[in-house]
Amino acid sequence: MALGDHGPRADPTLPIEARNAVSNLLLLCSTCHDIVDKNNGEAYTVEQLSRLKAEHETWTAALRKAGQAWRMSYSSIDYLNVPRVAMLPGGDVVQQAAQRAGLDPTRPFSGQGFAPGMFVGTVRPVFESWRGHAVPLDEARPDAIRQGMYVAFNAPMRSRNVSNRPFPRPLTGTWQDDPYLSFRLDGRTVMIRYDPQWLTTTTAGTDLVSAATEQATYAGIGLVVGESADAIRISALFFGKPQTAEGAFMKYVIQGEDETARTVSVDDFETGLSSRGSASQLLGATRDPSNDDVTVALHFNELEVDPGQIQRETFRQLMRVVPEFRRDLTVAVGTLFTHSGLTGLPKPLDIAAAHLAGEPKVWSTHSINGLGTLLADVEVAFALVRGVRRGQLDDLHQALLAESESYLGAVEVNLRRPTHQHFYGVSPRYRLIEADLRLLYSAKECYGELGDWDHRSHELLDEWESEEIFKSVAWEEDKEQSAADERQAEEEMSAWLATIDPDEATAD
Question: pTM for this structure?
Answer without folding.
Answer: 0.59
